[in-house]
Amino acid sequence: MRCTIGVDIGTSSSKGVLVDEAGTILATATRAHEVSRPRTGWVEMDGEVWWDEFVGLARELLAAVPEAEVAGVGVSGMGPCILLADEHDHPVRPAILYGVDTRSTAQIARMTAELGDEDITRVGGSTLTSQAGGPKIAWVADEEPEAWSRARRLYMPASWLARRLTGAYVLDHQSASQVSPLYDIEHERWHEPWWQRYAGTVEAPELRWAGDVAGTVTDAAAAASGIPAGTPVVTGTIDAWTEAVSVGAHELGDLMLMYGTTMFLVATGAETLRTPSMWTTAGAFAGTRNLAGGLSTSGALTAWLKDLTGADYPELLGEAATSGPGARGLLMLPYFAGERTPIQDPDARGVIAGLTLEHTRGDLYRAALEATALGVRHNVETMRAAGADIRRIVAVGGGTQGRLWLQIVSDVTGLVQEVPETTIGASYGAAFLAAGATAAPGAAPAIDAWNPIAETVRPDAALRPFYDALFDRYVRLYEGTTSVVHDLAADQRGATPTTPTPEAP
């Protein structure tokens, strides 16, 4: 039975799927993990875990379907992450994760002053923010000179797996475009002068497109993973873009909305749209450009409330439904880990306004769901103001399993959402890329045949005036609390584990 394997390295877990030629999932496997947060604003992960989990997932998938004949392997992962390794491919330090890691504030300011906002945007497409990979590289050079002195190669989760599987040192264009400002988005190549200036001792990886074959499985990788030597491996890309592939939301006019630990939005078009509050990137495929955005928390926020209250998700969803629109007068800012787009404020923090002694955990959970929906609306309106032509919304990710959350997002944004039959996410998209790359000429699968739309969620027009007013309050709440919240964020950065805590009365 001809199959493909897809593996995605996510923020809270790694997932693998084994898929047949028709797109049917034959087996799934998951490995949960945690990121490290050694200081406020730092989010890291040991890159060696990515390979170890890939090996475990591959062996579990193959054991579940012994008759599977693996035709190709797809890889995907969170990003942009910065994993620097020495000439022997040993990581010189833990990987620095995407925009949720906000340590490079000083490097962003310095590089912006040195290069100028206008030139940075002209070359890379976006202003520098905590999402940009270039300042993270500069942070290692500035703050950890010993590690930097050994750094010779740059990886992200997908390219790390491709390297370990095939020996190829490659990075896809989409991921490279997020190593801003070191990638020239119009010419689709590394910007050599700035690469030499900020990453000169690191060899620039060869650039490929996400669906291109990086190489084939080596004998050593076959022995470790159980995947036959000689099996083609695609280059892969960042998980949000692979999720878009998994649901067919990568055509011109599409917007992919990913419900995960964080919330991610990717709008696809042919033009390079630039706006200081969003991310301009190359697409997963040649000839496309993306305007992207992301909330720093979504599933992470709901998980925090679940753990805090001791309730399970069905209980909280039921209570949130009973609470009703507006959460009985609560309004939450979901900036519990800073915020990415469109406010680009690493010092933003969560705010809950309107609390009384009468409010319940269901009200809090409802307010959290509405907060993420309001954040999505803020991003969509910013994208459209920049010129994005959004014709179709496709929802994907674990959060799509809860109809209430989907309905709230549609009600708040006024957008119709299409939910495909399979919402397992990036691992499925990676398997699809592998199937396309290894298919016979003219026989590549179509994603709408693999994964048709199963449900359409339409907004309740009667709620539009209410949520219009709530969105206005949402924006004003951030503006009105920024000064105090930034002071608190500064206090948090200065806090240490030995800081005395006043005893409760």
Explain what the structure shows.
By secondary structure, the chain is α+β, with helices and mostly antiparallel strands. The protein has two domains: 2-240, Nucleotidyltransferase, domain 5 (2-Layer Sandwich); 248-421 and 460-496, ATPase, nucleotide binding domain (Nucleotidyltransferase, domain 5). The chain is 39% helix and 21% strand. It has 17 helices and 24 strands. A five-stranded mixed sheet has the order 3-2-1-5-15. A five-stranded mixed sheet has the order 18-19-17-16-22. A hairpin with a 4-residue loop joins strand 10 and strand 11 (189-190). Helix 2 (105-115) packs across helix 4, helix 11 runs antiparallel to helix 13 and helix 12 (313-323) crosses helix 13. The chain starts with a strand and ends in an 11-residue tail after the last helix. The model is unreliable at 496-505 (pLDDT under 50). Belongs to the FGGY kinase family. It holds the Pfam family FGGY_C. Residues 256-436 form the Carbohydrate kinase FGGY C-terminal domain. Keywords: Carbohydrate metabolism, Kinase, Transferase, Xylose metabolism. GO terms for molecular function: kinase activity.
What's this model, at a glance?
Helices cover 39% and strands 21% of the residues.
Keywords summarizing the entry:
disordered C terminus; 17 helices; 2 domains; 505 residues; five-stranded mixed β-sheet; 39% helix; Nucleotidyltransferase, domain 5; single chain; alpha+beta
Quickly name the level 1 CATH class of the largest domain. Alpha Beta
Task: Give the CA-CA distance, first to last residue.
Answer: 67 Å
- Quaternary arrangement of the chains shown? single chain
Residue share in helix: 25-40%
User: CATH superfamily name of the largest domain?
Assistant: ATPase, nucleotide binding domain
Count the E strands.
24
How many domains, as an integer?
Answer: 2
Q: What Rg, in angstroms, do the CA atoms define?
A: 22 Å
Report low-confidence residues grouped into runs of 5 or more: 496-505
Broad structural category: alpha+beta
> What is the overall number of helices?
17
The major beta sheet can be summarized as: 5 strands, mixed
Backbone shape: globular
Strand order of the largest sheet: 3-2-1-5-15
Mean pLDDT: 94
- Could you say what the CATH topology of the largest domain is called? Nucleotidyltransferase, domain 5
Pfam family, one: FGGY_C
Protein name: Sugar kinase
GO molecular function, one term: kinase activity
Domain Carbohydrate kinase FGGY C-terminal: 256-436
